[in-house]
């Protein structure tokens, strides 16, 4: 069993993996110069009030393209779609870092559920 626990009480375990629901995920795509590091991160808060950093990195293709698929919307309670989603995880805007440049990206619940593409320029 893999868990991270802030206390000795097994009831306080924070599981290493959490599954809420299957979603297509929004695709964040863009172009960058080869050789630059591209990372994406967001602070996430669970329904238990626990916070963690969601972070991914991507390789830039020979054509200069990159892509991230993200599972969390950034609009909180007001972003819920009645009858379609029952999420209990809230994300701050994603921070896309290309080299020294940082871009904030908001992603809607509709983007997540329908697998929509969000193009950014870097």
UniProtKB/TrEMBL annotation:
It comes from marine sediment metagenome. This is Archaeal glycosylation protein B peripheral domain-containing protein. Residues 25-118 form the Archaeal glycosylation protein B peripheral domain.
